[in-house]
Each structure stands twice: as structure tokens, then as C-alpha cells.
Amino acid sequence: MKGEIRATLSAVAAAAMLVACASKEPATSKPADAITQDDTSAEYQRLADNANQQLTCKRQTVLGTRVPTVVCVTQDELKAQRERSDEAMHDIQANESMRQAMPDRPPPPPSPSPRQ
Fold first, then answer.
1. Mean per-residue pLDDT for 89-93?
2. Taking the alpha carbons of 90, 91, 95, 96 in that order, is the dihedral positive or negative?
3. Phi-psi sector, 64: left (phi>0), alpha (psi -120 to 50), beta
4. What's the first-to-final CA gap in the chain, in angstroms?
5. How many domains does the chain have?
6. For residue 83, how many C-alpha atoms fall within 13 Å in the half-sphere facing its CB?
7. Between 109 and 57, whose confidence is greater?
8. Per the domain annotation, does 42 fall within a domain?
């Protein structure tokens, strides 16, 4: 029984591999050195542009509601959000150090010296 199943699975896997190989397009007749630098850089640029246009989606609950919504942004938008967040954190940290240098209230007046 196990031998029959194993033989059947092997035959199906071999058939799938043969079909996959047979369905590929024939190799181009261009020699390998015919691909120019311009073709390569154009392909790279197309891939880079495509990668920047891919969406990243996540569930977020909007402030004041309990209903999560799906928010999708591109990689460029996500990068811009991170840069703005980093700038805001830098500003907050810079203002905090200035606040610590300046007291919130003036120092108390000196206590009166006892009369003699």
C-alpha cells in the first residue's frame, strides 16, 4: 500500500517537472554578451521603481474609535513618515534639554535673616 502511494507520488512529481520544463519559452538566439549596460540599468531602474510602488498595509485603530481600519502606504510614503517621526523626536528631545536648563518657576526669594 505505502509502496503504491510512493510510486504514484513519484510519477506525479516527475510528470509535473516535465510539464514545467516543456512549458518554458525557448532560449533567445542573442548571445550573452549582447545584453548591453543600458538594458541592465533600465531593467534595474524598472525593478527599483516597482519596489517603491509596492503597498504596505496594516490594521490601525483610529484615535477615538474601536474599529480598526486598513491603511496602505507605498514605500516612499512610509519612508517620509519615518523621517517626519525622527525629526519630531529630535525636536522633542532638543526642547526637553532646553526645558531642563530653564526652571519652570523663578527661584524662591532668600529667607529673611533673623534680627539680632
1. 91
2. negative
3. left
4. 114
5. 1
6. 6
7. 57
8. no
> Is residue 18 one of the residues assigned to a domain?
no
Mention every residue, 6+ apart, whose C-beta is less than 8 A from residue 54: 74, 75
- Establish if 61 belongs to a structural domain: yes
Question: Is 67 part of a structural domain of the chain?
Answer: yes
Q: What is the C-alpha to C-alpha distance for residues 25 and 21, in angstroms, rounded to an integer? A: 9
Residue appearing with cell numbers 524662591: 108
Residue range(s) defining the domain that contains residue 65: 49-102
Angle at Cα 70 formed by Cα 67 and Cα 75, nearest 5°?
Answer: 150
pTM: 0.40
Find out whether 77 and 57 touch, Cβ atoms under 8 Å: no
Alpha carbon distance 99, 95 (integer Å): 6
